[in-house]
Request: fold
Amino acid sequence: MHISSINTILTYFQGFLFFLHRYKSSQERLVKSTFSPDKAYLQWFATICSIPHESGNERRLSDFLVDFARERGLSVVQDNIGNIVIRKAGTVGMEKAPAVILQGHMDMVCVKNEDCDINFATDPLKLVADGDRLYADGTSLGADNGIALAYSLALLDSSDIPHPPLEVVVTVDEEVGMGGASAFDASLLSASLFINMDSEEEGVFCVSCAGGRRSQMHIPTETQKTTSLSDKEKLSFRRVTVSGLVGGHSGLEIIKERGNSNKLLARVLDALLKKFSCHIVSLHGGIAANAIPKESTAVIAICADDRDIAGELKHWEKIFRHELRGSDGAGLTLSLSEAEQSETVLTPDSSSRVLSAALLIPDGIASMDLTITSQRLVESSNNFAMIRMGDGEIVFHCQTRSSSSSRKEALCRQIEILGTLTGARVDHYGDYPAWEYNPDSRLQPLFEKAYRDLFQKNARVEGIHAGLECGLFAEKFRKLGHPMDFLSFGPEVTGAHSTRESLSLSSAERTWNLLLEVLRRIK
Reply:
């Protein structure tokens, strides 16, 4: 080997040693300077923040958990994608108490400000404690769901906290599809009480979640040359846009009954085709399957004066604003602008089938949950999320949700039948199961009483019209014939998945005390 090659290797090695020293030093400074020793869970949280763990890059944190468990003589299992199970026996006097699963996910959503130079693959987060607020300088914090892992590590590391036998489950890949929970081998677990710590509102106990499925309706389309149209000389090409709506998460905010721009655009186009000589050139709407669409647009070839078209749009704008006056109608606008000429338009038959499907496809709330009486909770819904135009087809994208598996199937079957009637092919994908409410839960009254005794007020018991890992675990245990009682809770986390993310330190302390009290009461 040449001397120059040896020198190069030595230079790289020295750089690597420097990186390790810098990384270790920054980790120690972060832990020692931010939190007092009596807040063990916060010290563990700081340690977690010093180890990169973006979704898809969790291996280093997963390996850290293995080393943590082995150093303490705890049983640990790491599967081939990085999911972790750590077991700890019950403390003196609680050895035979019912075992409890504590569960959270180790990955975080990593976002940063434009002027932040952090490398999420290698660098620790820079924690800042400002009064009651803990955040990361210029980046997301990862309290979603690092705080669950921090609580678990503090318990596993403790020698003086009473607790029943524990099975700590930490999954990977939750933020990008719940892949860790999907691949998890539930036969590894024996406990029958499952506490998920991925909720972000203190004093709210989550007791159910929706399952979901995505659908794509592929409607074949045919076009004709504009030169073949009898009114070709009088046609003008115009863009019709529905905008100014609020949109939002298709699960959490579907209950607000905000306007769906795809649906409204279909109604406008249906009216224009009835009133004028009009042909559809293209359609586009929505941005994501799990977002209520807030803007949609169509290009049309129309034989009418712009003032007449604008008058018709103003008429429908007034109608829509009135219909949506209790939600987001105030900002809605229907606008008209010039569009580039096109050599083709959809045939009348294609336009009819596309608009029929758009007008009839389920959208919004389909049923309400009447079993959880403490809140107004959507049971089933469908979001007509996106319209995309491709080669020889228009594709409708939908997100169906329900905490009832049978009603989810019923909604998806409606979409299939509508597809058949309009000559479309319907594909389903991305299915995940629901976690149905258990009126005989042992955990729910235990948490409610502990919360009331500690804080002299009542907690709220709610379901969520969105997916949680609990749904995947519930389905796995059901198939194993393993009865499982679930509850999800957590401290106050605001701005998750953004650089505004913060953890309330007082809430984290109260939630920690609640967890300890619940574990102490399990007999």
